[in-house]
Amino acid sequence: MTYGTIATWRMAHEGVIKAQDILKKQGKAGDAVETLINTVEAYPYYKSVGYGGLPNEQGIVEMDAAYMDGDSFAIGAVAGIQNVKHAVSVARSLSDEHFNSFRVGTGATQYAMQNNFEIVNMLTPRAKKIWLNRLAEMREKNLNPYDGHDTVGAITLDKQGSMAAATSTSGLFMKKAGRIGDSPLSGSGFYVDSEIGGAAATGLGEDIMKGCLSYEIVRLMGEGKSPQQACDQAVYPFIEKLKKRYGKAGEFSLVAMNHNGEWGVATNVEFTFSVGNETKAPRILMANPGPDHTTSIAPITQEWLDAYEKRIKTPIN
Ligand code: GLY
Predict the structure, then answer these.
(1) To test the ligand 1 pocket, which listed residue (8, 204, 210) has its Cβ within 8 A of the most ligand atoms?
(2) pLDDT for position 141
(3) Pairing mode, strands 152-157 and 102-104
């Protein structure tokens, strides 16, 4: 059987390479997706996931994460968890529980501590400076506090035909304490059924959850649509509906892979992602909304990658 991995944003690429390596060697979809997300969580220059993630308005890093097994539908999730290096691993551990498998706040953090997950202060000096600068800017320029919500969401397919989905995020920068986005919510931030495929989201959680977009994409793939058709048909009409009935739509993007390793994406903003399957090695691509409910996809340029690297490592004063 074939295998494959797709994940949101350029930041997932190194994790996608590791996941594909696991899958190529007959590894399990669950191990591959956890390794992928752990790789992003550990990298301090990514401001919206794990260590180095930006805090809420009180300066506290509150993270959301989820894990889903596409064979059994087992789900584990955490929201508002603090001081835990790998929130997705806690979520995966919770997916073994029939009861109490979605834990929030202190309950989630206590579970992680009791089960010997790595505990660290997730607020890096760099993230703290960005937070302090933003507080000052908001005071001086009366700015909207919210910025940045680049969740890592991923789908993996292994050679045995099993699939898994996972997400991890520190959520909206400057969010209110206790705010939770789409990432830990089944059907909104992620969904996977090994007999069909999976989908995962990034972007403004408050709007993604209005459309249960990950589930909708999987449902459409289950009706026979290709991953790209399912993404286009779930996302673009919903954005129009949201604008008409709610007055606006935040930025969001979704990725999907079916049980044959075929993939698709849809987005209302410039969006990078990483994808690999049995026939093509992992690569970073750029998606943009195209005409008439379509998505245009192009290879990423070296110029873009260089500028990205420079941007994420720019010294903060
Ligand atoms: N999609 C992540 C969030 O809204 O928190």
Answers:
(1) 204
(2) 75
(3) unpaired
Among 5, 151, 156, 272, the active-site one is 151
267 is catalytic: no
Second CATH level (architecture) for the domain 4-312: 4-Layer Sandwich (3.60)
Sheet holding 163-169, edge to edge: 102-104, 75-81, 63-69, 163-169, 152-157, 4-8, 271-277, 283-289, 295-299
Q: Tell me the C-alpha distance between 100 and 96, whole Å.
A: 10
Q: Which ligand 1 atom lies nearest to the CA of residue 180?
A: 5
Taking the C-alpha atoms of residue 272 and residue 29, their distance in angstroms, rounded to an integer, is 22
pLDDT in tens, 120-157: 999 999 999 999 998 888 888 766 656 556 899 999 99
Query: pLDDT per residue over 3-30, tens digit each?
Result: 999 999 999 999 999 999 999 999 999 9
Strand partners, 167: 66, 153
Q: Does ligand 1 lie within 6 Å of residue 167's CB atom?
A: no
Q: What are the boundaries of each domain within the chain?
A: 4-312
Enumerate the β-bridge partners of residue 63. 81
